[in-house]
Fold these 3 entries.
Entry 1:
Amino acid sequence: MAVPKRKMSRSNTRSRRAQWKAVAPVLVPCSNRACRKPHLPHVVCPSCGQYDGRQIVQPA
Ligand SMILES: [Zn+2]
């Protein structure tokens, strides 16, 4: 297993970690014509419970 040869300085570690940023999630409009709410792609719509035109879960 590859092992770092030298200890990384606190400055280098902190500089690298300063680049970690949160990004807004990608949202797509629901394909259900009656819904059209934004939801995550490839995920069942949380408001109508449909995916690919099929009812997967009952909306809460
Ligand atoms: Zn929907």
Entry 2:
Amino acid sequence: MSRYDTQDIIYALATPWGRSGLAVIRISGEGCRASLSPFFSSPTALIEAKNATLVHGYLLDEGNARIDEVVLAINTRGHGYTMEEAIEISCHGSIAVIQAILSLLGRIGMRSAEAGEFTFRAFIHGRLDLTQAEAVEELISSVSQSSRSLSLSRLEGRLRERIDELKESLLTLLAAVEVQLDYSEDELDEFVFPRHALATLIESIGSLADTYQIGRLYKSGAKVVLAGSTNVGKSSLFNLLLKEERSIVSPYRGTTRDYIEADLEVGGIPIRLYDTAGLRESEDLVEQEGIVRTERLIGEADLIIYLVDSTDLGHIPAEDGRTLVVYNKSDLVRPAADTLAISAQSGEGVDRLLKAVEDRLKRSLPDIGEGDLVIEGERQWRLLEGAKGALVRALELSDSVDVLDVVAVELAEALTNLGELTGEVRSDDILDRIFSGFCVGK
Ligand SMILES: Nc1nc2c(ncn2[C@@H]2O[C@H](COP(=O)(O)OP(=O)(O)OP(=O)(O)O)[C@@H](O)[C@H]2O)c(=O)[nH]1
Ligand SMILES: [Mg+2]
């Protein structure tokens, strides 16, 4: 990557800026121990430390004054995250300590790392492929348990292995076609194009690409809006789901005037839940504005929980893919069969509601089993779709022997797409875009 020099020594704070028990500052680059040793209380121990060992002591400034008591975790060349000589400083987590250490590192000739630069080095030194590098950032930004565990399996290399298998099959196909192209017909037996193998490959790539819908849902989550007339119990349900009294509940109509949002997780999906102003005709300007906002949220929602008061039915919208009609106050009126009924007061029926929300959000998604591989990145999805498109064109053309050279071009194009996925085929631009989205210090 053009803006990254991999020869120099880089450093960055890997933990958040702020007060904490400990902070971690990482350093990577050949010669980093020699650079730091004059500013460490046990220079020899630092220089001679074996890989994966800890050295305890004090960091010192140029006047030999102690900055902080620290523990240094050492990696020698060929080991650790970046595969470079590296030091991780565990220091006390105060802003003053962090500032003093970072400033020292800058003064002794190290360079402050760019976003993603440690992972970039891990990638350049072959420790991670691009799918694993992306998994690092996906794991850091995961907000649901499902997203965490799916990212971890990609970080362990499961996606890389899968892509390698697909590439292997594709190469076999391409080789068969190339041989055919290199020799004239009379030199070879009659050529039968391996249509079946190609169709299987298309199927495998397609189903991997389709898992993006699942990965995206687990990563970015869904917007769920509680809507309905006034006084139906939207705020009561909101509080019940959040297990705290966040929204004001009252027997008066029009209590909630502006929307309130909060995060929760349902069936592994991160949900942003909105409590909204009840829908009714109103003369009150503030309430009218609240209702406009409710309508806007309804327009943007992935799912609307439309709450109806069982004691006073009023308007009931038609159920569609985006709307769940839920009858509240089931403690007061016995709900009709086949309806989704709850009591936001007693909690009755809420588990069933949550299951219905989960099912609805997952309804159009492909099924995945425990431990299945799922992709989460848009880049990965685009490349898989690109590969699939090229292979579909190749399959269509494969009937006519005289366009075998075009078939070969399509197969090669698919191979390039898969190569870009793992990072064997790359450009500075692409790498720049990927790594600049990372956290500094990772
Ligand atoms: N008996 C019973 N009362 C409920 C239930 N849910 C809510 N209520 C009561 O209904 C009234 C209205 O509840 P809210 O949660 O404020 O209703 P809302 O839909 O947010 O109303 P607005 O904010 O005005 O749109 C309150 O007095 C609640 O205690 C329920 O399941 N059973
Ligand atoms: Mg309310």
Entry 3:
Amino acid sequence: MSKRTLDAFFKPPPKRTKPDNTSTTNEENNPSPPQSPDNHPTYPHSIAKLPTHLEKALSEAIETSNREGKIMNNQPDLDCVYFQPFLPRRTANELFRVLRAELPFYRVVYFAKRGGVDVEIKTPRFTTVFGVDEECFFACDDDDAGDGNGNVNADATPAAADINSNSQYRTSPLTLRKSPTTTTTSSTLPKYTYPPRPIPSILQSLKKAVESATKETYNFVLVNYYATGEDSIAFHSDDERFLGFQPSIASLSLGAEREFLLKHKPAPATTTMTGSADGGGGSGGAGGTTIKLPLSSGDMILMRGTTQANWLHSIPKRKGRGLAGVGGRINITFRRAVIPAGTDNYYHYNVGSGGGLGVG
Ligand SMILES: O=C(O)CCC(=O)C(=O)O
């Protein structure tokens, strides 16, 4: 399969830049041989594994980083934890470059009803998503071996719902399975409009680290790529019913600093948000406090409890400083969808038809 990543759409292609810190380790000078990449029928191209030295840096960073975070609950209904930083700048910046080069990103265009009329919405940033809701998980025949109870091995539990760390030993492809814990009685798989994609190995260590720091488990990884200061996400909240009651969403920043805004929702009668963050609803804000967090590379914010039900958040366009100085930013949100409607929603808005790389 030919590999078409975002890099193909930016001229000149990004240089293999040296890490920010000019001193290089032996492992960076003599990196270990690359492991075989992840392939899956739902991926548009293979996705490399995380380089070993970065994998190591990530686990070291996790042990030494500020894992406690700062609790932000001094406003009505606000319940956030600000990890500043969660990852050291150097590790975060290298992760940014690797993910930008490896993940398949999309510029999704979709239609939404506005005043009874179908309006075309162009998502103002690149997006991609991996994962599946609680009703299913990914496993392969190898995972089933040796367990007469039909349980998959420890790394491929339904909670993991992803490519596990033993993926280099796998001989059969990952397939979607019905979760044994699902509340529905039917043993048939849900009819998804978009085929769910397993979370690739390249995101696994990060997911585990975020789960450990936030004491939550996630089955979705949504990635936003803001290529320039013109890319943005409008005020919205992630309060869809498919996320369950009081969802916890961890949001990690990599690359250029961007301002993250939080403001309390207006009275319900004036709230008009539906569908996605980019559909033009939810101007929000009844004149209350707007919290501004300058999210730097490696910072993470956990939004939990009553936050999503009551607060809106956004990344506004960054103007006035010239785009050249702004640089790209990747944001990774870790979430948990409980029902198939969540899976369909996330693929609809973040992958779409799966085409149109660079469109928009
Ligand atoms: O980029 C960010 O920090 C925010 C992303 C976000 O709000 C979302 O994906 O729902």
